[in-house]
């Protein structure tokens, strides 16, 4: 576990994230992180970014997968 120190940064406070952690998470300057408080801890998460159509198309390998989903037993007048 690494430790960081809270430092003054203008009128705010901040921490520096070590380079090895940034590399492991593939983060770079200006990336946006989501911040939450969970059980007395500060949690930073990479922001979810939707892929463009071009990015999805580049990853497409020609296979379409279909998965069945079990919705459970009918409980009303569902049409089967």
Automatic annotation (TrEMBL):
Organism in which the protein naturally occurs: Butyrivibrio fibrisolvens
Statement: the UniProt record of this protein carries the keyword DNA-binding: yes
GO MF term set: DNA binding; toxin sequestering activity
Name listed for the protein in its UniProt record: AbrB/MazE/SpoVT family DNA-binding domain-containing protein
Short name of any one Pfam family annotated for the protein: MazE_antitoxin
Domain of life, per lineage: Bacteria
Keywords, sorted A to Z: DNA-binding
The keyword DNA-binding is assigned to this record: yes
SpoVT-AbrB domain mapped to chain residues: 7-50
